[in-house]
Design brief:
The protein is α+β, with helices and mostly antiparallel strands. The chain contains three helices and seven strands; from the N terminus they run αβββααββββ.
C-alpha cells in the first residue's frame, strides 16, 4: 500500500472551494475553529480503496446541513434534517472524495456515501491516521472536512 503520498491542507482547500462554489454557489474561507465533536453533528463519509485506502468525511451541524441542502437543491432550507438533507450531504462527500481521489493515487475506487447523525455518536474508521482536517466558513455556516488514511505511518 502506498504511503508516500503527500497531501496538504491547501489541496483540500482547493477541492472544497471548487465543490462548494460549483454545486452550491458558496464561497469558502478557511477557518481554524476546531470541530465541536459528534454531539448533535451530522457526518457524511466516503471511503476510498486501491493504492491509497482511507476516507473523506464532512462534518456539519444540523442547521448547516439544512442550509447546504437548500443551496444545493435551489430551494428554501429545510427546517429539519430529512432524507433529502442526508442525501445532499452524502453527495457533497461523494464529490469531495471524487476530486480527492485524483490527487491521491490513480485508479482509486469510492464507496457509496454513508451519513451518520443524531445525538452523541462515534464514527471511527478503523486503523487510520488523520492526514488533514480543515474547517471552513461559508455564508451558509461552517463545516469541517477530514481525510484519514489506513496506510502505515510515515
Amino acid at each position: 500500500m502506498e504511503t508516500a503520498i503527500r497531501f496538504q491542507r491547501e489541496d483540500l482547500e482547493t477541492v472544497i472551494a471548487s465543490v462548494f462554489g460549483t454545486m452550491m454557489g458558496l464561497a469558502v474561507r478557511p477557518s481554524h475553529e476546531p470541530c465541536p465533536g459528534p454531539d448533535g453533528m451530522l457526518t457524511a463519509a466516503v471511503y476510498l480503496t486501491g493504492e491509497w485506502v482511507g476516507a473523506a468525511c464532512v462534518h456539519v451541524e444540523p442547521k448547516q446541513a439544512c442550509a447546504f441542502a437548500g443551496c444545493f437543491l435551489g430551494m428554501p432550507s429545510p427546517e429539519a434534517v430529512s432524507d433529502d438533507v442526508r442525501d445532499v450531504m452524502g453527495e457533497l462527500a461523494n464529490m469531495i472524495a471524487g476530486n480527492l481521489k485524483c490527487m491521491l493515487a490513480p485508479g482509486l475506487r469510492v464507496s457509496v456515501p454513508s451519513v451518520t447523525d443524531g445525538g452523541a455518536y462515534s464514527l471511527r474508521v478503523c486503523r487510520t491516521r488523520e492526514v488533514v482536517t480543515a474547517g471552513f466558513d461559508t455564508d451558509a455556516g461552517p463545516c469541517w472536512i477530514s481525510l484519514v488514511n489506513a496506510g502505515e505511518p510515515d
